[in-house]
Structures are given as C-alpha cells and as structure tokens.
C-alpha cells in the first residue's frame, strides 16, 4: 500500500447489494495521486458497479468512498464535474448532432463559473470565460491530435477518432480523477499503443482509474492493479505481482494455479 | 380578384404566427420528444391576460409584456408539475396525453373566466391596408425573435448545453450540465415564443377557440419543416401562410383547410422527414 497522504481516491470496505445479489463484497482500494490504476476481472465481477459507487450513482450498503479524505455522499450526476471527477461511458456517448469541438466544449462547461444569465446577456466576464474555454478545448484537441476533425459530426468519424473525442471531452474539464470505462475496446493494436503512451503522459496532471478487458494493455499502462472476482478483491498490487498471483490465474483460466 | 401582393402580405402575416407557434412546438419536441398539444392553450391564457391588462390600462405594450412573463411562468410550471413527474415512468405517450388534457382544461377555464363570447383584441399598430404597420410589426417581430432563438441555440454556451441535454441527457449530466434545469429552460423558452404568437394571432377578436386553427397550421408548418428542425419550421410557417392566402384569395376561403391537409399529405408522402429535415439519424 502506498502512503495514504498521496491517496486521491479511497474505496473502504464497500458492499453493494441488488436485491439478494451481492455485487460488491467489502471492496477496498486506494488510487494514489498521479498514477494509473486498473480494475480488472471476469465479466460480472463488479467492475462497473464499482465505478457507479464511486460516482455515487449506486449507494453502498456498507463502507465509504473517500475523495481526498472527504467522504463522498450520494451525488447527482452534474455534481461530479465540480468534484473534479470526469468519467467516460461504454459506447462513448458522443452527442451525434454536435460537432467534435462542440462535444468537447460541453465537457468544458463543468468548470465555468459565470452564470447562464451572464452568458445570455453577453457580459464581458462571460465572454472572456468563453474564449478561455474555447482555447482550452482547442488545446486538448491538438494534444490528442484530432484538431483537424473539429468541425465534423462524430457519426462520420472512425472509431479510434471517436474514442479520442470522448477522452478529450473528459480531459477538457481538467479533472483530478479520470475514470475510463474500457478505453481500449474496439481499438487496433497500433491505436492501443498510442493510448498507452497518451495515458502515461497524463499522470503529471491527473489520476486515472480504468476498467479494461485488454490484459496486455492493462499490464503496460497501469502502476497498480486491483483484481475483482465475484465482487471481491482477489489481488491488488503492481502489474508484476498481480500477473504472478495464482488466484488471478485461477479466476481467469479456471484452473488451480 | 384581390391583387397578388396583398394576398402575399396577408399570407406572410399569418405565416409569421404559424412560424412562431411552430417554433415553440419544435423547441419542446427537440428537448423532450413531446409534441405539446397544450401550446395553443398556454398561448391563449397569455393572450387573455394581455387582454385584461389592455382593458385596464388602455395600452398595448404592458399587456404584451404581461403575456410573455405569464408564458414563462406557465411553461416552467407545466414542465415541473406535469411533465417531469412522468419522465421517470418511461412511457413516451403519457406526457403527450397530459398536454392534450391540459389543452382541454385551460380552454374551458378561459371560457369560464372570460366567457366564450369573442372579445375585441387590439392590434399593435394601425391595421388598415395591405402593408399596414400592424402586419409589418407581426412579420418583423417573428423574424427577429426566431433569429434570436436560433442564435441562442446555435451560438451560445447555454444553447450548447440545451442541445447536449436534449441529445444525451445521461452523458450531459456526467459532464456537469444540469439537465433538469435545461429542460425547464426549454419549456420556458417555448412558452414565451408561444405567448408572443398568441398575442400576435388574437386580433381582432379573442375567444377560447381562436387559436385552434392557428395551431393546426402551426403543427402543419412544423411537420413540413421537419419537427426537429427550427429553421425548416420557420420557413414552413411562412411558406404555408402565403400558400394558404393564395388558395383563399384565388380559389375560395372554404378550401383553405383542405389545402393545408393536401400540403401535409403531399410533403409527408414525398419527404417523410419534412421539406427541410434531413433523413440522417440524429442519435449516433
């Protein structure tokens, strides 16, 4: 375990039940600041439920979620951005009727402080805000190398580019914690290579918590991995340790080590 | 035979009202996928309030202002009290039925308060002549308001959030957009535009059913234009207004309703997504 002073997110003994089914059973994990933390496990292991508990969409029957040593209560979706948490969803959830730049600008709203009324009336402060947000959106597009598609509708773009748009939209809010739901799904090996390099480059400004099936990618990109099976943590540690853990091999291959 | 220019101008004036009421329908349809059948009744209440204020003060503009404010309040109340509670139920038809019910209730209430007798309702300006100041006022006001609404949706941060909340409420929420607030703003905006249409459509006489035919043509305009397409709906309103004016002047007023129906059937069979609508799916 890392020093708790550097802990950004702490999940402490969280249990979630849906009716008679226990989706998470006393799960604990720490995401250290400035790291990439992976959550893996077979289908139905509770990975998405864990994401939903962290976001406050699903209440925990027991245990707590701590963000910077403050306990997260049940949040409404639009409060997340204000807490410094950005989350991508499976299936990307891009706005089909909005251009790439507009998609990213919606993500930039989370930081905006000026009022809707001010924006309506075109007050100078809000105009300055707008320019700043537009510049930041452009910067993120450039950083992810998708600026040339800024005016395109997402529907016409290749899958790899769309995934980058979703990532840009999450990054533009400058989150402290970036939660990625299967970022490598549907990407080619070359694109995954790029994604690994990209995520490693983010650790100077944000922590990443990701759920992923692509084992090879997880092993290369993560500093720390938590393995779930049947709602329980069966292994937790750096990639090399997790890879060698007999319990993990059993869970994935169904054989006793 | 009436001269064509007069018919065209009369058509533009009527068309402006269809365009405004149609725009109100489109704003709500885009935001919540609900065709708001209560739209004419909400506008009717606003027009009657304008009538009462006009009576009391003898002026026009305070009445218009009161109507617009009343529209905003009614729009917000309708969304919060009637539409929002149904949203979580997941039944797409329920809100539409509720708006139909609201239409009947509000029309009846207007009749109870202000009686079913036609009340004389003033024009903004002198209404005599083909290019009367009153007609020009109607057309210019609607063009300016429609332009402002389009600008709001297309070029402001609030408009971006409104569109995002309409397209993917779940994702917009995750990005910090207050989706519920956006829906309320959408209804307020629509009801204010509808109230304006009501006040512009009322003269010379206001009665509980005066907006019924206007609403039918506004709905026709919205369908012609593509129910999802504000620009198309505004153009559709003006085109329909002029077309019906020519039918009325050249072929006879009894054919107007039939002509509107013919246009509707023709457009829907040839271009199901509307004259100006795109067939590209909006949701990806």
Topology, element by element:
The complex is a heterodimer of chains A (257) and B (284).
Chain A: E1 7-18, E2 21-32, E3 36-40, H1 47-55, E4 62-67, E5 70-71, H2 80-83, E6 85-87, H3 100-108, H4 116-121, H5 124-143, H6 159-171, E7 177-181, H7 189-202, E8 207-211, H8 215-221, E9 224-229, E10 232-237, H9 239-244, H10 246-253
Parallel strand pairs in A: 3-8, 3-9, 6-7, 7-8
Antiparallel strand pairs in A: 1-2, 1-4, 4-5, 9-10
Helix pairs in contact in A: 3-5, 3-6
Chain B: H1 4-32, H2 39-57, H3 61-87, H4 93-114, E1 119-120, H5 133-155, H6 157-167, H7 169-174, H8 179-201, E2 205-206, H9 212-225, H10 230-251, H11 256-270
Antiparallel strand pairs in B: 1-2
Helix pairs in contact in B: 1-5, 1-8, 1-9, 1-10, 2-3, 2-4, 2-8, 3-4, 3-8, 5-6, 5-8, 6-8, 9-10, 9-11, 10-11
Primary descriptors:
heterodimer; A: 257 residues; alpha/beta; Rossmann fold; 2 domains; six-stranded mixed beta sheet; four-stranded antiparallel beta sheet; 10 helices; 37% helix; disordered N terminus; B: 284 residues; mainly alpha; two-stranded antiparallel sheet; 74% helix
Describe this structure in words.
The complex is a heterodimer of chains A (257) and B (284). Chain A is α/β, with parallel strands linked by helices and 257 residues long. Chain A has two domains: 1-84 and 177-257, P-loop containing nucleotide triphosphate hydrolases (Rossmann fold), CATH 3.40.50.300; 93-174, P-loop containing nucleotide triphosphate hydrolases (Rossmann fold, 3-Layer(aba) Sandwich), CATH 3.40.50.300. Helices cover 37% and strands 24% of the residues of chain A. Chain A contains ten helices and ten strands. Chain A has helices at residues 47-55, 80-83, 100-108, 116-121, 124-143, 159-171, 189-202, 215-221, 239-244, 246-253, and strands at 7-18, 21-32, 36-40, 62-67, 70-71, 85-87, 177-181, 207-211, 224-229, 232-237. In chain A, strands 6-7-8-3-9-10 form a six-stranded mixed β-sheet, with helices on both faces. Chain A has a four-stranded antiparallel β-sheet with strand order 2-1-4-5, covered by helices on one side. In chain A, a hairpin with a 2-residue loop joins strand 9 (224-229) and strand 10. In chain A, helix 3 packs across helix 5 (124-143) and helix 3 packs parallel to helix 6. The longest helix of chain A is centred in the middle third of the chain and has 20 residues, at 124-143. Chain A is globular and about 50 Å long. The two termini of chain A are 25 Å apart. Mean pLDDT of chain A is 86; it is low at 1-5. With 284 residues, chain B is an all-alpha fold. Chain B has one domain. Chain B contains eleven helices and two strands, in the order ααααβααααβααα. Chain B has helices spanning 4-32, 39-57, 61-87, 93-114, 133-155, 157-167, 169-174, 179-201, 212-225, 230-251, 256-270, and strands spanning 119-120, 205-206. In chain B, strands 1-2 form a two-stranded antiparallel ribbon. In chain B, helix 9 (212-225) runs parallel beside helix 11. The radius of gyration of chain B is 19 Å and the shape is globular. The N and C termini of chain B lie far apart (53 Å). The model of chain B is unreliable at 279-284 (pLDDT under 50).
